[in-house]
TrEMBL record:
Name the record gives this protein: Cytochrome P450
Classification via InterPro entries: Cyt_P450, Cyt_P450_B, Cyt_P450_CS, Cyt_P450_sf
Assigned keywords, A-Z: Heme, Iron, Metal-binding, Monooxygenase, Oxidoreductase
Gene Ontology molecular functions: heme binding; iron ion binding; monooxygenase activity; oxidoreductase activity, acting on paired donors, with incorporation or reduction of molecular oxygen
Family: Belongs to the cytochrome P450 family.
Length: 412
């Protein structure tokens, strides 16, 4: 596995599934070279086996638009580059993002009412109140970890509300999310065993919540929605756990890492931070731009169900494809100065961070709302967050995010 960058025209033989690219924040240049020289590129014997790298915005959208040919189903391998290991340390846990139509459609429709514009309006006051409380509780006279105090706390509180989860145990959601979303554990039998323990703990805890609601009147939380639906009421324990993982990781890792990314990213481009501070009406657009720039999930996987000519590349039935959203969102043919945050970028909404097509993130509106309210409440307080040192990043090729980030506050 090569990790040395190549001169233009040289063979592109590095493995972008190697987590070191992301924990060291040096993934930008190899993806730029792939987009320029070979946007649909084959990796042989990488950290997660053999797979196609789909790196351009156009090619990613093309693959996403053909879900019957490029499957998301767990039956073919699911949505991450990690293949299942049949040694007792991996569970088959179907989830609707890792299903094809028609089953995907029915289960997605079940949870979609939790994320409608009406629900966003209903929840916005509560989100704003909780955001204000957290910001008002931050110290102005000493460093602190933004990831822990703000990003994790805000998203974990939101998950607890969505699941009607016991408030005092809400940090369990963060712990389970971290274990469930870490595909790097496939390389360690010991860690796979540890993850199994945590996932069974999660399943047992949620089973109690399910049992308490099964004969109760419907309520607007996700568990009740599942219970009172035709598509999800008869799930077995593994499908239940799979969908829990989807909703927890989807609601936690993505928004949380964008909330951290906005602090780190705006510090990298002080002119854009100042423009946003002086023009708070740009916040809705800046939210899209920050999500594009951060791209909290680096890839999704698809598996070919038949032979297909993909822009001249001969994809064979059974081939694994990595749709590198993190690369597509830096595609210079779509986003000018793509490596830079531009808070008034006209086409920021064309980002792929939420996916594209039938699997586009069902909770996208909620993520946008949470990030927008955070920026609005920071603006009300004229709060500038200063990053004091390079953050500790997640060592992973799937979740693209931050473990910790030491910051201090100042007024502007």
């Amino acid at each position: 596995m090569a990790t040395v960058l190549k001169e233009p025209g040289a063979e592109l033989n590095y493995d972008m599934s190697d987590a070191s690219w992301y924990v060291e924040d040096r993934w930008q240049e190899p993806f730029r070279q792939m987009r320029t020289q070979d946007p649909i590129h084959w990796t042989e014997k990488g950290m997660f086996g053999n797979f196609w790298n789909v790196t351009s915005h156009k090619a990613i959208q093309h693959v996403e638009a053909l879900p019957e040919i490029f499957s998301s189903s767990y039956e073919y391998g699911g949505i991450t580059l990690a293949d299942r290991i049949d040694d007792g340390t991996e569970l088959v846990m179907p989830m609707f993002i890792a299903m094809d139509r028609p089953k995907h459609t029915g289960q997605r429709r079940t949870v979609a009412p939790a994320f409608t514009p009406t629900e966003m309006k209903r929840m916005s006051d509560d989100i704003r109140r909780r955001t204000a409380e957290i910001l008002d509780g931050l110290p102005w006279d000493q460093p602190f970890d933004w990831v822990d105090k703000v990003s994790i706390e805000l998203t974990t509180q939101m998950l607890a509300i969505l699941f009607d989860f016991p408030w005092e145990d809400r940090r369990k959601l963060t712990e389970w999310s971290d274990w469930a979303g870490d595909i790097e554990l496939v390389h360690s039998e010991e860690l796979r065993q540890e993850r199994l323990k945590h996932l069974y703990e999660m399943g047992a805890y949620f089973k109690k919540l399910w049992d308490a609601k099964i004969n109760a009147e419907p309520t607007p939380d996700l568990i009740s929605m599942m219970i009172h639906s035709d598509a999800m009421s008869e799930m077995d324990e593994f499908e239940f756990m799979g969908n829990l993982i989807l909703l927890i990781v989807g609601g936690n890792d993505t928004t949380r890492n964008s909330m951290s990314g906005l602090v780190y990213g705006l510090q990298q481009f002080p002119d854009q931070r100042e423009k946003l501070e002086q023009n708070p009406e740009l916040i809705p657009n800046a939210v899209q731009e920050i999500i594009r720039w951060q791209t909290p999930l680096a890839h999704m996987r698809r598996t070919a169900t038949e032979d297909y000519d993909l822009f001249g590349k001969q994809i064979r039935k059974g081939d694994k494809l990595a749709l590198w959203y993190i690369s597509g969102n830096r595609d210079e043919s779509v986003f000018e100065d793509a490596d830079k945050i531009i808070v008034d970028r006209e086409n920021a909404r064309r980002h792929l961070a939420f996916g594209y097509g039938i699997h586009r993130c069902v909770g996208a509106r909620l993520a946008e709302l949470q990030i927008a309210i955070l920026l609005e409440e920071m603006a009300k307080r004229r709060m500038r967050v200063n990053v004091l040192e390079e953050p500790v990043r997640v060592r992973a090729c799937f979740v693209h995010g931050y473990r910790s980030m030491q910051v201090s506050l100042s007024k502007y």
